[in-house]
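Treating backbone geometry as a discrete language has practical consequences that deserve illustration. The amino acid sequence and the backbone structure tokens for this protein are reproduced below.
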Amino acid sequence: MSEAWDALRKKARSTENSIDVKLVSLNKLTGNSHVSGGFDIDEKTVSSRQTSFRTMSTEIEGLIEQLTNINKDMKDIAGAQSSASWANNPAIQHTIRRHEEILRDYGSEFRKARDNVNQVLQRELLLSSSNENRSPAVNNRARGYDMFLKENDHINSCDRLLDEQLEMAMSTKENVARQGINLRGISTRLHYISKKYPAINNLMQKIKTKKQKNTLIFGGRHLLLPHFHHFLDH
């Protein structure tokens, strides 16, 4: 196997692991959110979390771009060395497809996490003023706005679930399409073999003819048997 291919594959796995770790850290930014009911959010804390959010988002975007380039290089190497036995191995093509699927999954997960965290941080920023600087009317408006944001969160969660279901449906459709291509390939190979080897073709024709005869005999017997019994009874 090509050393360049092997090195790229290891680099792809390492980059995927880095993206996974970064995504976990990104999602943790909402784990300690104080917007669940209170309004005692420290503005400095919110600012610090926003800085972390921007830094992590930039890092993940860079890693995703890096993984995209690695996958492209892997595909290019396999294509350039298509005459080599290792490049024609089905496992190589499976590996390429698998890394592309992982890249798509990470890209989708990152966009969802980024939007969710950004929404939470924006909400915290709006509610970061202390209670001392607010009149009761302002507090009431803030609570009403908070309820509106929570309802909006529920709607966004439903949207994310729908997106996931659509992605699963598209994946299933692609798998079915690939299976159809494989079945057509098998049919083509069988046709080629029957043409190339007349003996096999003759045998297949005899089997087909025998099956048709058996079907006719079986059907005729069931058709005539009641009449025969009726004749014997009389």
Remarks:
- Residues 137 and 143 are 10 Å apart (CA to CA).
